[in-house]
Amino acid sequence: MMENALKGLQYFALQGAVDSIAPFGLGHINDSFLVQAEGKSYLLQRLNTSVFKTPQVIEGNLRALLAHAPELFAKHLRGTGGNYHEFDGEHWWRLQEFVPNSYSPNELQPNELREVSTGFGCFTAQFGSQPLEKYTESIPHFHDLHLRLRQLQAALEANAAGRLESVLAEVGQVQQFNWIAARFDKLVDEGLPLRICHNDAKAGNCLLSKPDSRFLKVVDLDTVGPGYALFDLGDMLRSMLFNVPENRENLESLSFSKERFHAIVNPFVEACSGVLKPIEIESLPFGGLYMTYIMAVRFLTDYLNGDIYYKVSHEKENLSRARNQLTILELMASSMA
């Protein structure tokens, strides 16, 4: 792995010798490395082309993002070929400056919830007037619930990993929430507008300042593209409202916190209300149900398929993630009805 990273780094003209390079972060998809060179820190990433099959699309989206609002993002370095993504014959790589005195929040105190929400709200506000045609979905139909439900059905029928009998209860839970797809369709029919979204809005994709926890940068931009505002707000509710690891199953002690709910929703609305239409603002809480449901479906599908999409540390991790999301979904649905 380190040998590959060093090879990828050669495509970026860093000043001075490389002092160290080491794996960094806990991302599900791409491989990341912290690079130290001549007293400066960089983040080197290898794009997972099993997931992101068209690196050229991600390159085009990144160029548009950095041209429009560079202050929102970490500085990316162009490679020796003049692009932000460089190909070494086997892998695609990119390099960005490591933002000093920054961190991605983990425990998520109320002030951190507000700052993360403000950050993604600022993103929505900045790109509210950007033409949709400047951006392309890096993963087509990424948040298409109907597609994800069809994929689950195909996984159930194939039972490729022989795990169907162990997830019948979870399949039943999924079926109980089919109404979410119909409600979303109704919102679209009523005029819910497409806009440029991050499409993976969670605390790990937002950098805060170490001294005072202020919002600094939005990161991990591979999924940026056309979407709906409720996708980003919903992803924050899904991943931040209950403050538990995504793979934790024992959630009996969880309860819905209005304080945390408002600490996520209100700053987002305040930051981007100038670009959002009334139907978007009204539908934002529903985004929590939509995004939690779609992730439960995706985790369960990957478990049935034999863990071919998400990285796992043990055989049942995707099942634990699916159970986690289904529990959170039930808590949301009962508290937001």
Automatic annotation (TrEMBL):
Q: Tell me which InterPro entries the record gives.
A: Aminoglycoside_PTrfase (IPR002575), Kinase-like_dom_sf (IPR011009), Pseudomonas-type_ThrB (IPR050249)
Highest taxon in the source lineage: Bacteria
The transmembrane residues are none
Q: Could you tell me which residue ranges the Aminoglycoside phosphotransferase domain spans? A: 21-239
Q: Which PANTHER family match?
A: AMINOGLYCOSIDE PHOSPHOTRANSFERASE DOMAIN-CONTAINING PROTEIN-RELATED, SLR1880 PROTEIN
* Name of this chain's protein: Aminoglycoside phosphotransferase domain-containing protein
**Originating species:** Roseivirga thermotolerans
